[in-house]
Amino acid sequence: MAYDTILYDVAGGVATITFNRPEKLNAFNDTMIQETIKALRDAEHDETVRALIVTGAGRAFSAGQDLADYQERRARSIGTIGDHIRSGYNVIVTRMRAMEKPIVGAVNGAAAGAGAGIALACDILFASEQAIFAEAFIGIALVPDSGNTWFLPRRIGPARAFEMAVTGERIRADEALRLGLVNHVIPPEDLMKAARDMAEHLAQAPTKAIGLTKRAMNRALEFTLDQSLEYEAQLQDIAGRLSDHQEGVAAFLAKRQPKFTGK
Ligand code: LHQ
Predict the structure, then answer these.
(1) 192-245 residue pLDDT tens
(2) Is residue 132 within 8 Å of residue 170, measured between CB atoms?
(3) Is 197 helix (H, G, I), strand (E, B) or coil?
(4) Ligand 1 centre and the CA of 64: distance in Å?
(5) What separation in Å is there between the alpha carbon of 194 and the centre of ligand 1?
(6) What is the pTM of this model?
(7) How far is CA 159 from CA 138, 178, 242, in A?
(8) 3-state DSSP call for residue 7?
(9) Which residues are CB-contacts of 118 (< 8 A; sequence separation ≥ 6)?
């Protein structure tokens, strides 16, 4: 399917979703929200896709909600803000966390508001030296949404998360790295290569085992140690029946490189 507001490309087992409203700093209008949901669904159901990259065209990752579009919606009184969030950003973030494939975020510039939430919903984050993160909601007297209140304290601790949320300060890439907000900071010209190298590596890896690992770590955030130990044992029973597991053990014993098929 052709998209108007995003680019969607699949190559070498990697699906790349690029927010593509660069003249609007990739701010989300309704079309971009729905197209992102559709692309995530396509990537999830496409068996050839074993890893994803999410990034932005131009100088921003995403400035969050398109406020001009939002103002126009309000003028036409179409639904509540809560309904807009439930049917849009919440679906995007939920799909990203539930999808049992690794998602590499390549934050090329500003990630603000809902754009920050979507960045933080990625599994591994690469940030350009030019990236900034901003909980911009407070600037328009709103509450952080799109998972920001859930992701931020878990990544950087509650005190710093609260400060970011109520000041709306712009966190630069070096500070984001120091805080543990991102995994890696990369010169802008090397960002996409670094993200692609990681995604291509993951696309050759045991996809199902990675998916189960994501499931376990998602659940572990709410579990006690005992619950996690039991859940690990259950998931290991599943992983132990995968053909990639047989291949991994056989390759190790034969002292050769494994060929994982993601099955
Ligand atoms: C924009 C935007 C934008 C429209 C820059 N919209 N034009 C959910 C439900 C319902 C309601 C509300 O929200 C939500 C979720 C949310 O995401 S709320 C948060 C919405 N986002 C923001 O408040 C971020 C606003 N933008 C910024 O803080 C800055 O623009 C960032 C930090 C993204 C980038 O700063 P700069 O690099 O200094 O660029 P700039 O501020 O000069 O912006 C460039 C242009 O982009 C400018 O337009 P212009 O015509 O002057 O060139 C901005 O007006 C426009 N723009 N963000 N979200």
Answers:
(1) 999 999 999 999 999 999 999 999 999 999 999 999 999 999 999 999 999 999
(2) yes
(3) helix
(4) 7
(5) 27
(6) 0.97
(7) 16, 15, 42
(8) strand
(9) 54, 62, 89, 92, 93, 96, 111, 146
